[in-house]
Write a structure and sequence with these properties.
about 240 residues; alpha+beta; 5-stranded antiparallel β-sheet; 7 helices
Length: about 240
């Protein structure tokens, strides 16, 4: 196809080539794909600036349109798959890696409340804020998150305790918390802990039970009657 240059006011006009028009359209939309409007603009540009002595045949236009229609179908299929993928994440806990305007990357974690589909792109709503599906980094299973949460609670309490040799009644509250967390864990959740930590935690629990028994026995030895006298102050009645 021959291309002629437009003349205006006795001067040649530097017309935008078909390739340049496509690049400009991509920059404006911020997308790497062309839509129908872009295709029509390219088609009109071809028709407007074609050489009238060597016009483009109808067959070539039909071929171009058929190629674009095929591309559009592929884009529609890709968009449908993206929406389906995004919709399957509703209710899931995800982690997003988002890059801000200054180029810094931050991690956002939360539950996906709903999905927004706009301008051919899917966005996940997390805490009321939309995030592009392209920024998705990790999808976490609820069982995993629950196990991770219990493991973190276990270690927080575990690290507050002194060495077993100097454990005292003052540590009873923390040991009881540790026992409560441990008893609530299933086999999968316990797998997040090391065998050494689990064994040591059980030793703390057993040791505290002995301390409580001893403390209870000492309190019993010092009990008094209503008259304020202990057993040693009593005499057998004659």
């Amino acid at each position: 196809m021959g291309v002629i240059q437009e003349v205006k006011d006795g001067k040649f006009v530097d017309n935008t080539s078909v390739q340049s028009m496509a690049k400009d359209k991509i920059k404006k939309t911020g997308n790497s794909s062309l839509d129908k409007d872009a295709f029509l603009q390219l088609l009109v540009a071809q028709m407007k600036y074609q050489d009238p002595l060597e016009p483009t045949s109808n067959t070539e236009y039909i071929s171009q349109f058929a190629t674009f229609s095929e591309l559009e179908q592929m884009q529609n299929m890709s968009a449908t798959l993206e929406l389906s993928r995004a919709s399957s994440l509703v209710g899931q806990t995800v982690m997003m890696k988002v890059t801000d305007s200054s180029g810094r990357t931050k991690t956002v974690q939360g539950n996906v409340d709903y999905v927004i589909y706009e301008s051919g792109k899917a966005y996940l709503s997390i805490g009321g804020e939309p995030y592009a599906l392209d920024d998705l980094d990790t999808v976490a299973d609820k069982k995993y998150l629950e196990a991770y949460k219990k493991g973190a609670e276990f270690l927080t309490v575990f690290r507050k305790l002194p060495e077993i040799g100097i454990l005292s009644i003052a540590d009873q509250e923390n040991v009881e918390k540790l026992e409560k967390i441990l008893n609530s864990m299933n086999e999968y959740e316990r797998s997040f802990m090391t065998d050494e930590d689990l064994e040591k935690a059980q030793k703390y629990i057993d040791k505290m039970k002995d301390i409580v028994k001893v403390a209870g026995g000492e309190e019993g030895d010092g009990e008094t009657d209503d008259d304020g006298e202990g057993d040693e102050g009593k005499t057998d009645e004659v």
